[in-house]
Write a structure and sequence with these properties.
Length: 461
């Protein structure tokens, strides 16, 4: 292990340069115009994985974007770890809010990252964290220290719902067989407060449309006599929550698992400063479901949020029209034991029912995923805990995340194994937002910590 860490220390500048090259590739999976760039990123990953020492590296085409696979089988008797990550990124919009080009990575010091942070789309989610695993593997391979068999499955469609990943996993189940899945698409509480994600919310993501007249109308001639789809959509969405910010869809909470007071008390012992939270977001007050703390609202409670809304004239100047239609994209974060298909059905039935006369509504599901909870009494979790303790000098706190990684539950269903969510980003790293960034401390700390996971997992397993 000393040789592993020495190698990492000697190669830090090289690791960073390579990551910056990867971040320059605009691998936006949601936009077909960037299909070639996504493929370019896959080839970059494939080449680098080979240079790290992986064998049987292959770029597998799918109905969408490719999946990169590689492995290093040391001894079939040793435990096998499957590393998952994704090299695709969110669209960078709105571009005018970026302080530097989203695909022109720069390093700047910040209050939370005084030793520097990489600013670029995908820096934290997930290229930077994916690359930690590749470089940790390179360091172990170069030092001749591989206590586990290692497999890599790196995809290019996570940001659009991993639509082809399950098919790939089922078709290549034998190739991908493992004892645990290791991924780092999550965060820690703070750089001096390590944590391990033990729960993820599920997701139901859909689009709604309200249609009124068969064309845009003059708002003076027709206003007041014909239903305005934008007005109607606003009213319908507003009715989806009551005065206590509880979701009003019948049956929505039927399957929600309520945590005990003891569990909630333990959760709220995690370091959290509400004043700093509001200051960082430049808001005067928080808002959420009555009766729950901010930490609870963002982890163990379901949500319903509008992610985008449009209709009518939104160009420069004035145009007095009564729009023909209005649209919105809506996401619902789900908790154990909520099923995304059931929630989508409940939403659709309710939304169609509350539509007033004079308009037609439609609901189009996009993608979703099951919530997941990982146990903390397993060799896998213990290995992650001991690994973080070795590099941070502190026992990590188990923490449920508010985000969703639908493939975690899919891995358990297909492979019959649990996942370890060993992330190193911060919630303040602006993933999915302008000026996404990833601290150099976090990048290097991840590379240093991951080899310890393999060490302790091989011993505990």
């Amino acid at each position: 292990m000393n040789e592993v860490q020495s190698y990492i220390e000697s190669k830090k500048e090289d690791f960073l340069k390579e990551l910056l090259e990867l971040l320059k590739i605009p691998s936006i999976s949601a936009d077909p115009a960037y299909k070639d760039d996504v493929a370019k990123a896959a080839e970059f990953i494939s080449t680098q994985l080979t240079s790290c020492g992986a064998e049987k590296v292959e770029v597998f085409p799918t109905a969408g974007h490719p999946i990169v696979y590689g492995e290093k089988i040391v001894d079939p008797a040793l435990p096998t770890v499957l590393v998952y990550g994704h090299y695709d990124v969110q669209p960078p919009d709105p571009l005018d809010l970026w302080e530097s080009g989203p695909f022109e990575p720069v390093i700047k010091n910040t209050k939370l990252h005084p030793t520097g942070a990489i600013f670029a789309r995908g820096a934290c989610d997930d290229k930077g964290q994916l690359y930690m695993h590749m470089k940790a593997f390179e360091a172990m391979n170069s030092a001749g220290y591989l206590p586990c068999n290692m497999k890599f499955m790196l995809e290019g469609e996570e940001e659009v719902g991993s639509v082809n990943l399950e098919t790939f996993c089922r078709e290549h189940k034998d190739k991908l067989s493992c004892d645990v899945v290791l991924l780092s698409d999550t965060s820690i509480i703070a750089n001096d407060v390590p944590s391990i994600t033990t729960g993820l919310r599920g997701l139901s993501y859909l689009e709604v449309e309200v249609v009124g007249p068969n064309k845009d109308l003059h708002s003076g001639v027709y206003g007041g006599a014909v239903a305005n789809p934008v007005n109607v959509l606003c009213s319908m969405i507003a009715s989806l929550k009551d005065e206590n910010n509880k979701i009003s869809i019948p049956g929505f909470y039927d399957d929600v698992v309520e945590l005990s007071k003891a569990e909630r008390d333990q959760m709220n012992e995690a370091p959290f400063d509400l004043g700093n939270y509001k200051e960082a977001l430049d808001i005067e007050e928080i808002m959420g479901e009555e009766g729950y703390t901010t930490l609870e609202r963002t982890s163990i409670r379901p949500t319903l949020d509008v992610n985008g809304m449009w209709g009518g004239y939104i160009g420069e100047g004035a145009k007095t029209v009564l729009p023909s239609k209005a649209n919105a994209k809506i996401s619902m974060r789900l908790v154990p034991n909520q099923d995304p298909e059931k929630i989508t059905k409940l939403f659709t039935e309710h939304f169609e029912k509350i539509a007033p006369p004079g308009v037609k509504v439609s609901v189009t599901p996009h993608h979703g995923g099951m919530p997941a909870v990982t146990p903390i009494d397993t060799p896998e979790y213990a290995a992650a805990q001991k690994a973080m303790e070795a590099t941070f000098g502190k026992n990590p706190i188990p923490q449920r995340s508010g985000g969703s990684i639908p493939i975690v539950s899919m891995f358990e269903d297909v492979f019959g194994v649990k996942s370890v969510l060993l992330g190193f980003g911060l919630d303040s790293d602006d993933i999915h937002s302008p000026n996404e960034h990833f601290g150099l401390f976090n990048f290097y700390k991840g590379i240093e910590t991951i080899p310890y996971f393999y060490k302790y997992y091989s011993e505990l397993k």
